[in-house]
């Protein structure tokens, strides 16, 4: 397996990284080379594809919805790799909003995103995904426990839907919360960040004020992840109840998950 830093290899895929090495509360670590995360693979180059193929992936989990896929394109096909689409947001949810993000003029952006509205939207989204998509996250974790590793999880930017899905997986493995947060915040690194695109239809372009208004949508912020964790505790009481009652994970399934994804 290649040990080159992924960011020097992948030119058409943003925010790729191996989640291996993160510590659990009982002193173990996530295995290297079994759990990866990234942005979408639609624009991967042939060199990117060769690198990803060399990882020996079993499954690529794509959390984008049909609207995302129509906008960005389907993932490239990797030989011998299973592609599983588990949408974590409704295709119609927010389509007009995201068109406004791309095309809107400054007054529209101020009205929709100013005064903390953008950050509030992100907090609401994180809470909604973690409380409302338990069937999807349960399906994901059962798949990882049975046969789906090594696995790559991605959404569009690899920050929100993939970030939450990785966080939920790490919770099930017993990874320390501060380590989960540190990995999540890596999406803010300059070479990982989602490249914001604004269309030429907007006279406001990508001015400093526009970028400041958009920043909460494209940042990874600890407050967003904390909102998801808080929602888990408010809804289920604790992580174990969330995993057993919300995601329908038995202790046997969690044992298989730990056996596949944690170092001995």
Structure description:
There is one protein chain. It contains 13 helices and five strands. By secondary structure, the chain is an alpha/beta fold. It has a single domain (6-258), classed as Protein-Tyrosine Phosphatase, Chain A (Alpha-Beta Complex). Helix 3 (66-72) links the parallel strand 3 (59-62) and strand 4 (82-85). The two termini are 20 Å apart.
Ordered list of secondary-structure elements with their pairings:
Layout: H1 6-9, E1 17-18, E2 35-38, H2 46-53, E3 59-62, H3 66-72, E4 82-85, H4 95-103, H5 106-113, H6 117-132, H7 134-146, E5 151-154, H8 161-173, H9 177-185, H10 208-218, H11 222-236, H12 239-246, H13 251-261
Parallel strand pairs: 2-5, 3-4, 3-5
Antiparallel strand pairs: 1-2
Helix pairs in contact: 5-10, 6-10, 6-11, 7-13, 8-9, 11-12
CATH superfamily: Protein tyrosine phosphatase superfamily
pLDDT < 50 stretches = 1-8
Strand coverage percent: 5-15%
CATH C-level label: Alpha Beta
Task: Please compute the radius of gyration using only Cα atoms.
Answer: 18 Å
Order of helices and strands: HEEHEHEHHHHEHHHHHH
Put simply, the count of helices is: 13
Helix content: 40-55%
Q: Tell me the structural class.
A: alpha/beta
Largest beta-sheet details: 5 strands, mixed
Number of strands: 5
Keywords for this entry:
264 residues; 5-stranded mixed sheet; 13 helices; 50% helix
């Amino acid at each position: 397996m290649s040990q080159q830093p992924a960011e020097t290899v992948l030119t058409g895929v943003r925010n790729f990284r191996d989640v291996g090495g993160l510590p659990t509360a009982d002193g173990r670590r996530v295995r290297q080379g079994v759990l990866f995360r990234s942005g979408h693979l639609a624009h991967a180059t042939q060199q990117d594809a060769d690198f990803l193929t060399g990882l020996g992936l079993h499954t690529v989990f794509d959390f984008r919805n049909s609207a995302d896929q129509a906008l960005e394109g389907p993932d490239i096909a990797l030989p011998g790799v299973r592609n599983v689409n588990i949408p974590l947001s409704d295709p119609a949810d927010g389509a007009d909003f995201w068109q406004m993000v791309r095309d809107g003029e400054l007054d529209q952006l101020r009205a929709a995103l100013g005064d903390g509205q953008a950050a509030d939207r992100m907090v609401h989204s994180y809470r909604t995904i973690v409380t409302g998509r338990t069937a999807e996250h349960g399906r994901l974790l059962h798949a990882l426990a049975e046969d789906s590793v090594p696995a790559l999880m991605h959404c569009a930017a690899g920050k929100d839907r993939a970030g939450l899905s990785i966080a939920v997986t790490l919770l099930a493995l017993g990874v320390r919360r501060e380590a989960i947060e540190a990995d999540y915040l890596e999406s803010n690194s300059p070479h990982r960040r989602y490249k914001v695109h604004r269309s030429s239809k907007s006279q406001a372009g990508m001015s400093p004020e526009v970028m400041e208004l958009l920043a909460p949508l494209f940042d990874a912020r600890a407050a967003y992840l904390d909102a998801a964790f808080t929602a888990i505790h408010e809804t289920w009481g604790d992580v174990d109840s969330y995993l057993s009652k919300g995601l329908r994970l038995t202790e046997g399934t969690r044992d298989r998950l730990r056996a596949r994804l944690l170092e001995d």
